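hey so i finally got around to running the thing on that chain from the lab meeting. sorry it took forever, my laptop kept dying and i had to restart like 3 times. anyway pasting the input first so we r on the same page abt which one it is
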Amino acid sequence: MEKKSGDAGLCCSKTVTLPRLNRLSPSLESTALKIMEESGELAQAIGKFRGLNGERLRVKETEAMQMVAQELIDVAQTAVTMMFVLEEQYGIDIEKILEEHVCKLKQKGYCD
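ok and heres what got predicted. didnt touch it at all, straight out
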């Protein structure tokens, strides 16, 4: 993961490169369901740390944050897979959508 600071127009950004999974044949629906599954696992990892899972023993902070990071990457990988599906099966220009997204964030004042 690359962290950029001081780039033109950006206060701080992260660049994460994740692979196209070439041993799967994901559909829009299967990928959306997988995002929800991975998001649930992310929530579960956070819940373990916060003691929200109904268990008496909470996980140590370092272990919980490791779990959170791993689940977050799983969510990101699945989102990237969906981007490939949108590009390859539906002809969506993800780069254009990303540019529009950044413009929207700037207009809302969330970043410079």
